[in-house]
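Hi L.,

You mentioned the student needs an example of a multi-chain input paired with its predicted structure. This one should do, with 1030 residues in total across all chains.
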Amino acid sequence: MSSGKAEVVSARGIVKAFPSAAGPVAVLNGVDLALRGGESLAVTGESGSGKSTLLHLIGGLDVTDGGALAVLGTDLRTADDRARAALRRERIGMIFQQFNLIPSLTVAANLAFQARLAGRHDPARVAALAGALGLSQLMGRYPEQLSGGQQQRVAIGRALAGQPPLVLADEPTGNLDEATGDAVAALMLDLVRQQDTTLVLVTHSLRLAALCDRQVHLHAGRLA
Amino acid sequence: MTGRARLVLAALMSHWRRRPLQLAMLLAGIMLATALWSGVQAVNAEARASYAEAADRLGTGTLDRLEPAPGAVLTTADFVALRRAGWIVSPLVEGRLRAGEGRVALLGIEPATRVALGPAEGGAVAEGDLLAFITPPGLGFADAEVIRELEGADLGGLTVAPREGLPPDTLVVDVGIAQRLLNLGERLTALVVAPEQPPGLAPLEQVAPHLLRKAPQDRADPEALTGSFHLNLTAFALLSFIVGLFITQSAVGLAFEQRRQVVRTLRALGVPLAEVLGVMAAELAILALVAGLAGILLGWAVAAALMPGVAATLSGLYGAEVSGALALRPVWVLSGLGMALAGAGLAGARGLLRTARMPLLAAGQARPWAVAAARGLRRQVLGAGALALALPLCLAWGGLVGGFAALACGLLAAALLLPVVLDAGLRWLAGRVRGVLAQWFVADTRQQSGGLSLALMALMLALAANIGVGTMVGSFRSTFLGWLDQRLVAELYVNARTEPEARAIRDWLAPQVDAILPIWSAEVPLRGQPGRVFGVVDHPTYRDHWPILRARPGAWNEVARGTGVLVNEQLFRRAGLSLGDSLDLPGGALPVVGVYSDYGNPSPQAIIGQDLFDARFPEAPRLNQAVRVDPDRAAALAEALRDRFDLPGSAVTDQAQVKAVSLRIFERTFSVTAALNVLTLGVAGIALLTGLLTLASMRLPQLAPVWAAGLTRRRLARLELARTLALAAATALYAVPVGLGLAWMLLAVINVEAFGWRLPMQISPELIARLGVAALATALAAGALPALRLARITPSQLLRVFADER
Ligand SMILES: Nc1ncnc2c1ncn2[C@@H]1O[C@H](COP(=O)(O)OP(=O)(O)OP(=O)(O)O)[C@@H](O)[C@H]1O
Ligand SMILES: [Mg+2]
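Structure written out for the whole complex:
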């Protein structure tokens, strides 16, 4: 399932501002980024520097105020809500800082959820993923019956189950203790590499960032 | 539904699997609301259908009629012209026929056109009899008693055959035969109008401008009290439904609130917003249909249980026959489902709208509670203000619709203001309590009351509805009984069947009793409406007891002299009369010298002196009389009368007996109302329970620090219960003036619009006290489970609050 060396993310001069009491505040101020298939990119930066904002824009969860942004061949400047939803559903796996599982569904149902949404459910693959993530014994539990690290492993499994060409992870281990966080992150990187998936990983941890192919730093609204 | 939509629906619905109690509350809310609505509808529909059947046996009771305008005549030519113009009408002749010594009512109908008016009349004339019926000398139908009376009368060769199920004292013949028997020539009394007319008809003003169309209520009709009862039940049903809506609103709103995060996740995973909204709407519709169907069945069961009581109430009081069996009618099944869907839709609309507007990405911190709540309160004050402004407009608009609209405005305004008033009260209290625990308690109650406000509004509306309807029924009862006391002063009322019999009865009674008072009347148009004029003799019975509302001094003297007329309240109000105005009567106008109350009768009525009556209405039947006699002798005399003249039991009425029957009937009315009261309060209780359970889960972060600071869980639970009771008590207090206002609207606005009479309001402290206790009991029942849960909560659950803190 390699997506070749075509550009998966192509951003040029992205601008994003948020309204505030004292007028709009620019968060991203001309971000350029090009990402090839199979690459893994770590984004670091101070708190409030706009890392999550950038990730949300790439994932089509939010829209840019200016600049050009294309993800997996979809021009996000022109795509409507429906098209952006389709892009996320079919081709992107997302992992958030807060685990964002559906609390009323079991681990098994949560794991398979996005793959089923995309119409690509493969029980054997879900079982293999669960095994690799160490979740096989927990399949019948509900999210609230899991520890933080276990929940984050479910979220990673959900993002990867549909084998999307692009995975976006926003501080996936930020809520975990260091040891657990490292273990979970290593697992995620492993799985992503096996699938030849492109990864954008937002993290505070320089150790984690070092494991990625490339590292960029977000500062004053630009990447460096 | 696509596979994806099904997956989304399953994900949303899985919420309920984890929260079965909440689902139960939601379903119970819709179900009870629908049950109350459709139960009352069922009772009403069934009772109405039964009258309609009785009245329609000859097709006159519930159909509109065309009658000649004052001074005009209606002839067969008009009938022909209307039929040519496409109108579906059937002619009618009504009159009285001298039969030997007495008179019987003569009803002329036209069987061919009559059939088109509805199925009930098809059987009036069997097909085999048709030719004989319409061809002179004709065939008539009457019950056996009438046939006996008609023996020897000159009917121009008419054959009279016995037939059951006809109106009493009536001979039914073909319309042409009736015209001949009454020497009317081509004249008709009225044309009965089919309810369904072909489209594009030429208007009446064009075809027959001299005719007036009259709805059945415009005519004398014994159903007015029944109608009042129905109207009140309907108002009650509507109020109950609103109370039910509040539960649905809180449960649905909660479900939307709790699933905001899931909706975000779904959208982040690539489900388009439109699809999420569509699936949520579908989910709501499915739940509403399931709960609505269950509600209809429950309502039907409740109605079936109440039905014997209701049937007895109606037939006893108003003489209407109501069959005790209840049929599941498609109309109210559909209306029930419609209400369930509409209610759920109304409740869900806000949630859907908020979901649609919700940004995909969490917009940072939620507003601090106090700010959001204050904004909500301000908006509620504005809403209440707007409604309060609309209220007088609705009243000014007038009519029954205006009255009901004003009622709705007033109630909603009161409901919206409740949280504002509670909050103000708590703020006031906060500045006055001492002690850290008391201060925390008040502050925490203030915060809680925001989350409970919907439930408290539901409780308030339920209580207000109960106070309103209870006060109205109570006022109705005492006024009506008081009026009966005045109106039925005489010990016995005797109705003779024929005039000679009436004379014989009077002669026989005269030496044994204190007085015999004739009750003779004639049908007369009063201010353009069919009404009735009575003659009364000058007697203390009237002077001392008649329920006069307002009169000129010496009014009875004027009536006795024949220089004044008394009118009933209906006529007085509808015609906008004042004392001294003159009222047109056959034989000359008279000044109005007084007004009397006349409940249970929608049509105008007037009273003149007996001498004047005799002079002006020599043809009026002289059959009925009241008898004054020592009350102890009344029962024996009644028995003797029945024996002596072989009178049917109903011909001699013992006043004490009438009152006893009326009282019993009112007690039954009360028991129906009480059953509905319990149901409405139950609905409010469930609303409260839903609210409390909801808050319980969200409140842990507020309670955990207090627990950690050293309050036991039992103590916290007791405080929670105390809080619920205090809020319920405050709500009950608030509900009292609202309920009394509602009662006033029902008595002084709705009743006047619907029936023309106004009932004086009688406040029952006992009713209010009982409802206050019921409110506390409801709150106790609703608060017990959440309090128990809190008392039993595990420390680890409380500790999680701290662990989850970030
Ligand atoms: N919906 C929003 N409305 C207004 N301002 C926002 C919104 N989302 C983000 N911001 C602002 O944009 C800036 C960047 O936020 P962002 O969440 O992207 O930072 P971040 O780099 O992810 O920080 P952290 O490391 O703490 O997660 C912040 O100043 C934040 O307050
Ligand atoms: Mg962030």
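You could point out the following to them. The first helix of chain A runs from residue 51 to 58. The CA atoms of residues 44 and 205 of chain A lie 8 Å apart.

Best wishes,
N.
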